Amino acid sequence: MAQEPEDRGGAPQEPIAPTREELSPVADKVDVTPVAQDEEIRQRLQTVLTVTDWFTDPQVRVAEGVVFLNGQVESDELKKWAGDLARNTQDVVAVANRLDVSEPSVWDFRQASSGISALWRDFIRAMPFVLFGLFILALSVGTALLATRVVRALLRQRIQTKLLQNVIARAAGGFVVLCGVYLILRVSGLTQLALTLVGGTGLIGLILGIAFRDITENFLSSIFLSIQQPFETGDLVEISGVTGYVQQLNMRTTILMTLDGNLAQIPNATVYKTIVSNFTTSPNRRADFMVGIGYDDAIAEAQEIARKVLADHPAVLKDPEPSVLVDGLGNATVSLRVYFWLNGREHSWQKVRSSVIRLVKRAFQSHGVSMPDEAREVVFPQGIPVTLLHQTSTEAQDPAPAKQRFTAESRHAEMEVVSTKAEAGLYSESIVIEEQARESRPLKEGENLLPVASDTAISEKHTKEKRP
User: Fold this and answer.
1) Which of the two ends of the chain, N or C, has the fewest CB atoms closer than 10 A to its terminal CB?
2) pLDDT tens digits for 100-153?
3) Among candidates 227, 143, 301, 127, which has minimal Cα distance to 450?
């Protein structure tokens, strides 16, 4: 039976506004005739709150199925727990939770000690995984070192560059260590972290690739160039309009010693994407020049004169055979283009070309083949007044015979000279360029990705190039 409300002498009672914490959800169903009496509900809740020993001076009062909870509690979680307990009790209509949450003391270290105890328990519980992780990490590092040595040994016969061997071998070892770390995270139950590590590695690589695109592109190009080896150290090449002898291929640039004696550095990405002309790979090289003869001269006779000069020249190869072709008809001349081949390793194509042009010009003069200049026609509508002046006997002397005597005396001697002092011999300038390179700022040999020729091969090459 419900308890009778207390009699306050008939005085009017002022309503008490409950706080938000005292309110509880209204019961879905309220029985008119409850089974459990208020005293039974109070005793049951009082016993439970006292037994738990979580509350300080808990007091329970029940009136008409409404439970009033008073006392002190240490946390909001325990206050909510007591309210839920009372609300779930049989025949409870509503709960007025008036428990006060006590503020902890400033010098209360119980929470800190409990946190430390929890950390210690977690550490003890994680010790087997830590030992297993250390074992897997040591095993992966040992396997990575073994893999690095094996890969370096396999590449020693295929790749001559030590720097490239180290890069590939260390990349293989790093991959093995990364697999070991991934296995440790998976065994430890950190699957999401392992996936994040793998994905983050790829993401970081992508970000670095975008941020350092030029550096990455040059690095990859250096690897491809060192594998393909389109040129070697000392080769005469032309890259992006720059002609010179290859000095070094490092991880970023290709260094050339130009024919002017300057060191030129070309990015490897440019070298890999542009056209590379290697004049040393094939020793034979073709050169050509154009010469014009007069319309009154016989073309076949002029071709034969030029061909004979090429056949008698010591630096011009007989096979492939040189040729003299008609290239076109100009305003005042018939254009002949002279083609010939030479050994680019032994001779300088510029010097040989100069020698051949000089000898062909002298041969045309000796055989009376004219080489006129391009004709120009100038029209004077008003005409040009002409005045004839009488010359003295001294001025009337023609200096042409003296010039002709000088030409006739030197013509035969010049025909016999293949290379003049001005041409400084016909040998290749590579030895001069290499000496210039040795006198310049020294390069780091350890960074060169190209194989360096042996001293014997270099000495033989210099012997051939010095031969006039």
Assistant:
1) N
2) 887 766 676 767 787 788 888 877 877 877 788 888 888 888 898 888 888 888
3) 227
CA distances from 182 to 39, 168, 201, 302 (A): 63, 21, 11, 81
DSSP alpha helix (H) spans, 88-190:
110-156, 162-187
Considering only CA atoms, which of 342, 340, 354 is closest in space to residue 307? Answer: 340
Residue 234 and residue 255: Cα distance in Å, rounded?
11
8 Å CB contact between 340 and 316: yes
Letter string b/e over residues 112-134, b meaning 16 or more CB atoms within 10 A of that residue's CB: eeeeeeeeeeeeeeeeeeeeebe
Q: Where are the beta strands (DSSP E) in 38-139?
A: 55-63, 66-73, 94-101
Whether the CB-CB separation of 70 and 59 falls below 8 Å is answered with: yes
Contact between 355 and 309 (Cβ < 8 Å): no
Cis, peptide link before residue 320, omega less than 30° from 0: yes
Q: In this predicted model, what pLDDT tens digit does every residue of 300-319 receive, in sequence order? A: 999 999 999 999 998 899 98
Tokens describing residue 164: 């490239």
CB 333 within 8 A of CB 371: yes
Name the token pair of 331. Answer: 């305003």
Q: Is 459 helix (H, G, I), strand (E, B) or coil?
A: helix
Give the whole-angstrom CA distance, residue 282 versus residue 288.
Answer: 18
Which of 374, 294, 300 has its CA nearest to residue 334?
A: 294
- Answer for the pair 452, 235: CB distance below 8 angstroms, yes or no: no
3-class secondary structure, 374: coil
Which residues share a beta bridge with 68? 61, 96
CB 255 within 8 A of CB 262: no
